[in-house]
């Protein structure tokens, strides 16, 4: 069954009263959290810090090109959620460098504006380098030490307060590197990358707490997280408050927290989308994840979430520190040095490309050695 048919069937099964309850509940929880933050419970992002937030505008050349082409282009706005930690900052700098490189190519016509949605509550040293919108973190203790829980709350605030011209949004992360210009993969349905470790059918008993049986089978829940996803802004505006509320409910439920661990927020986005009858076009070519994906193929993004460890003969030693390695977690408090040593012979194309692209970015980014 295609995505449109699945949506129609799901909508037909859902009583209107249930939709009303879900919508009202999501609104009330979101409103209460928002009120807490606006009363001062969510951080220090007020006054001068707020005045530095830019208008999130579509580039002028793209607006003109879209008009001249009769509106055939469908640009998306890149939204990158981040903290002000050194670990996040250096990844954001590399990511933004390659976004600009790919956007400048003729095939990059769909790559629109860019915003780092900074959920640390205050400006940081990258405000002048990367277009940034400052939002509040969750109230103290609400994330339970799970920093990713701030992501859906960041999107709720950004979508409410920013003026975003593009009709579509790409939700991205700091450890994404564009290896090719990315076209708009979405249509009426959003496009997402399927993760092999998001398996709703294996967690039905837990997911039924958030996705009741009357909504249909748990296979209506896509095997995705929120990133990378290209989605219509109007769809994300509806999903984001539910995503935030479900994330918090999941984190505060011990059984769910134990079952999902670090990917809990990913499951919450998938559930929230299903609750709104939104199904995603699953695109395996959206990105690769070295070292397990070895070839670039026709992919668009390298996601360097896993450590890459090899012997000097090019043999993968995953789970054991290799004689040669690149692991983003080795650079928690400082950026990696310029001119990283390239992998030894025999290491796959994906890892070699990753290191070369990091090296090119760090060679061209000012103040890299200062740890900005």
TrEMBL record:
Lineage of origin: Eukaryota, Viridiplantae, Streptophyta, Embryophyta, Tracheophyta
Stored InterPro entries: HPAT-like (IPR056508), HPAT/SRGT1-like (IPR044845)
Keyword Ion transport set for record: no
Swiss-Prot/TrEMBL keywords: Glycosyltransferase, Membrane, Transferase, Transmembrane, Transmembrane helix
The protein's name in its UniProt record: Os01g0272600 protein
An annotated GO cellular component: membrane
Record's bilayer topology term: Single-pass membrane protein
GO molecular function annotations of the record: glycosyltransferase activity
Subcellular location: Membrane
Domain of life (superkingdom): Eukaryota
Hydroxyproline O-arabinosyltransferase-like domain residues: 76-369
Transmembrane domains' residue ranges: 12-34
Pfam name, any one: HPAT
